Amino acid sequence: MHMSHHAFRKLVAEALGLVPEEFRPHLAGVAMVIEDWPPEEVLDDLGVPEDETLYGLYSGHALTEGARESGDLPPRITLYRGPLLEDCLDEDDLRDEIATTVIHEIAHHFGISEARLEELGWG
Predict the structure, then answer these.
(1) Most buried among 17, 50, 66, 81, by the most CB within 10 A?
(2) Could you tell me if 104 and 122 are in contact, meaning their C-beta atoms sit under 8 angstroms apart?
(3) Cα–Cα distance between 70 and 103 in angstroms, integer?
């Protein structure tokens, strides 16, 4: 599937608009970054099998871990455009997958583990 960077960003903005109002203040300072592909070293570090990929990644200090320390990098959510475009069939499928990925990564910011997300059906 092909989509312009601008149109992709609009879908990301739509996904962020799904976040309930009461949670939005807690996302201040969380950067939303779009990269084309996940770096091989990231896939290796996370133990992603070679036949799988990564749509998004949360990096940083989760809110449940207490106050950030002075040397901590700010939290960020990275979406990987290439795998999303490659795996989605059409724009509706892409919209749904971006929304799922954004909510999934925001959940990590709130301290929800991968295992718990799997239990909730967001894995």
Answers:
(1) 81
(2) yes
(3) 27
Distance of CA 42 to the CA centre of its chain: 14
| Tokens standing for residue 118 | 């799997």
Q: Which amino acid is at 74?
A: P
Q: Is the pTM for the entire model greater than 0.85? A: yes
The conformation of residue 113, written as its DSSP 8-state character, comes to -
In the structure encoding, which two tokens stand for residue 38, read together? Answer: 């996940």
Q: How confident is the model at residue 42 (pLDDT cuts 50, 70, 90)?
A: very high
Distances from the Cα of 105 to the Cα of 10, 23, 74, angstroms: 18, 14, 15
What structural domains and CATH numbers belong to the chain?
5-19+28-65+73-119 (3.30.2010.20)
Residue 8 Rama label (left phi>0; alpha psi -120 to 50; beta): alpha
* Dihedral over Cα of 12, 15, 106, 82: its sign: negative
CA dihedral 62, 74, 118, 10 (to 10 degrees): 140
Of 113 and 102, which is predicted with more confidence?
A: 102
